[in-house]
Amino acid sequence: MAILFHCPWENADEWLAALRSAMPRDEIRVWPNVGDAEEIDFALVWQIPHGELGAFPGLLGISSLGAGVDGLLTDPELPANVQIARLVDPLMADRMAEYVCGNVLYYHLGHDRYAEQQRFGRWRRRPHVDARDRFIGLLGLGHLGRRCAERLGEFGFNLLGWSRGPKEIRGVHCLHGNDRLDEVLERAGILVVLLPLTIDTENLLDKVAFNVMPRGAYLINCSRGEIVDEEHLVAALDSERLAGATLDACREEPLPADHPLWKHPKIRITPHVASLSEPVTGALILAEQVRRARRRQRLVDVVEVARGY
Length: 309
Fold this sequence. Notes:
Layout: E1 2-6, H1 12-22, E2 28-30, E3 40-45, E4 61-64, H2 70-73, E5 83-85, H3 90-108, H4 111-119, E6 135-139, H5 143-153, E7 158-163, E8 172-176, H6 181-185, E9 190-193, H7 207-212, E10 217-221, H8 230-238, E11 242-247, E12 267-269, H9 279-294
Parallel strand pairs: 1-2, 1-3, 3-4, 4-5, 6-7, 6-9, 7-8, 9-10, 10-11, 11-12
Helix pairs in contact: 1-9, 3-5
């Protein structure tokens, strides 16, 4: 038995060291040096080239090295009847919550407007909005969304949540289903996107959606770039329909240095860092997934392929 590892990240060596520490008796083979393909029984991967996983007939399970699995599910040759899991690490949820709270507070406190004033040496106090009067919309109420809601709730914000299926989260007015999305959009002064990328969520936020949002609202995308129509976003910002946007995810990653999004005065960009997985804690969770697969048990946080997450 052996484990396949594929990681294109800058800290791939840290991941490999952490996995070997968590599974000292296991052989971990780094793609493309896989050796005898029939000996591979588990795959720990991120963005492995499509078609590669079909080469391992003894595969018992596949786990993403992060929360997202769209890179796996879009593989037309993904092995059938093999359990696929996402990495759900409490530390990742805390990191996401910190990122979201930081950006929500940046806009809530008007720091974007004050930063603009500073450029021109303009000393002007702007009207303050109390947290109890600010509506924050959360699209996506899974593990990460729930943690963000808990943290944001501590500030006293009015929280609106939307998801595909029904959810109950203390302090959040939860709505679900396509016919209830506009109820969140039309009230959210700050909209936070935490949805998985699926056929249903691609281009979910387009011109129509932006026109539903309150004039002067803000967008924070912490999920996948394909969920936001970037052309329509820029148009909404230029027309002052939206006041600003923070993008931690873009359609093209890495975002080219000459891409116009970098220079838009109302857009803040971070390089997909909102909820980075941590090798030390993640490796322990993944090691347990491998053990469960070899015991022929159901993996934790299994993906429903038909649903897309």
